[in-house]
Structure formats: structure tokens, C-alpha cells
Amino acid sequence: MSDVHGGVVSLRQMEYLVAVVEERSFTRAAETLNVTQSALSHQIKALEREVGGDLLERLPRGVGLTPMGRAFLPHAELAVRSAGMARRAARAAAGAEGGELHIATLHALAVGALPAVLATWRREFPGVRLHLHEYLTTEELRDHMDRGVADLAVGPRPEGWQGPVVPLGEEEIRLVVSRDDPLARATAVRLADLRHRAWVRCVLEPVIDGRRWLDWVCEQHGFKPLTAVETQHASTAVRLAAAGVGIVAASVDVARTTAGAVTVPVNPAWRRELTAFSRVELTWAVRRFVGVCREVGFGGGEDARGTDGRRADVLGPEALMPDAPASDVPAPEAFAPDVSRAALALPAPER
After folding, report:
1. What is the pLDDT of residues 293-331, one digit of tens each?
2. Confidence (pTM)
3. Exposed e or buried b for every residue in 112-127, given b needs 16+ CB within 10 A?
4. Would you tell me the crossing angle of helices 114-124 and 284-296 to the nearest 10 degrees?
5. How many Å apart are CA 272 and CA 209, to the nearest integer?
């Protein structure tokens, strides 16, 4: 698009602004865009004149956004990324098998369920280049999809999402322990039987009624969970559990990426729905990616097999401490903060 003429903000200017913000540097942004730094600065200044104020400020280390810039940036990002999606959609409508596809997802899915999907995609559609965007929380994932960062997102069902949402299946959340842990021999475990065990906790655990998910759900069984260590990522938590640091709740797919980890089902089972969602109608390439997700499937197998291939045997009464009878236990939503009970489909806590 051309420069500003007659009070029009150009797509090019918004693209330049987004690049400067992402690189936090005029020099690096100019290199990324393959333009001179003077041309980049000229376009940014023209944009600031058009909107009526400074969008960027120079900081001791790089470049930051002014309050006006923070308000403007999401709209600029959406415009720039929507233009890219429009180009890819046009190619897809013409039946072009080349090009690229941007997929947004959670880190836990990127290291767990998605590698098999991506490998299958590369075998079947080698001409379509994939770009994977990873986020730690469902809130981050949804926010960036709102900004048009990707053609498709794979994650838990987004509550109130206005665009297409396609169910992909269910992912089972299990306990993860080391192969030497007495629980590794169990076919299923009741949460009430874990009151004396220490947990590996993720700082991005869901929050329910102002309480962290594990605290909330253990309280329903009359105890407070003991914490061995806290970490940022689900994959790190599983590695610590496999090393015997403590037990952790994680998806079967994430657990299977870690040597020595053994998964044990909880009774009743913890499951969460996974979906594919987009801002616009699904294009040729996106529809086929959804098809590959369904073909490969999510959630792992039916047994409590560890990564070393051993089948778990029934746990004897000496390894557990029978307590209250098992009751319905809500499933975690993969370490997303501030998740509402409605979003998790949780029952009201018992009084």
C-alpha cells in the first residue's frame, strides 16, 4: 500500500510499527523488513502525525510503547496479520498447495499432543510450510488469536468465541510419578488417598474462586496438598515427577515425552476437551490441518503405561491409605490462570 495521503493510515506503516515493537529496535526492524532505517523512521513519524501523538518512546534498552501506542498496537497487529491471512486464504481458494500455515497453541500441547500431528502433516503436505506459535496460558492464546497471530488455534474450547470452533477430542489428565513410586503399580488412584504425598506445582495452575486449582479440588476431599517444588512449565514439572521429586497432574501426551515417567489414572477420570478455533471461516489448508488432528487423535491410550512401556499392575492396599470414597473431581485446564468455573464446567464446591 502507499504512504499516508489525505488522512489515511497505510498497512505498510502499521507493519513497520509492529516490526519495531517486536524487535524493540529500529535497526533490527529495518533489517527484518529489508528497508533503510531512515525510511522506517520516516514512516513511523508519518503514522504518529496521522494519529496525533507519539506511539513509540526510546528507552535505555531499546524502544517501548507510549500509552497511545499501547492502545493502537492491537489494531495494527490485527490489520497486518489479517492481510497475511487474506493472502493465504486467496491462495487456498485457488487450490494452491504451496504457501504457509500459522498454528497457535499452548506450550503443553506443543510438546505433548501436537508433534505427531505435525509429523503427519509434513508427510502428507510437504509443500505447506508450518509456523508454530506457542503460549503458556489459554488467556495468552486467545488474546493473540484475537489479534490475528495465526490461521488456527489448537487448545481448550474458548468460552464465547465468535468464530468457528471444531471439536478435536478429549485429552486425559493423569497423575505422573517415577517408575519406582508405589503409585506406578496402580490402575487408578483416588485423590483422597494422596493427602500425605507432595506435589510438583505449576505457577500457571488454573484459579477457581480465588484459589489455585489443586488447592481447591483437594479441599473438596478434606485436605491441603503438600508442595515439593513449583515450576513454570508442564514439561519441566513432568521431568521432576519422573525423577521422584513429587507427583504432578499432567496430560498423557506430555508425560510420554519424558523417560521414566509413569502415568496413573485418577478415579473418576480427569478429562478436558480440545478444539481447533479460528477468527474466520476455515480455508483449504486449515480444514486439512483439522482433519489431520482428528486422524492422529489426542489423549493417548487406554492403559497406565509408562514411557518405558511397562503396564501398571493393580496397587495393593499397603501402598495407599484408604480414606473418603472417591467423588467427582473437576479436570484441570492445562495450567491457565484465572479460569472461571463455567469455562471448566466445574460443579459448585460442597458446603
Report:
1. 998 876 544 443 343 333 332 222 223 333 333 333 344
2. 0.61
3. bbbeebbeebeeebee
4. 120
5. 19
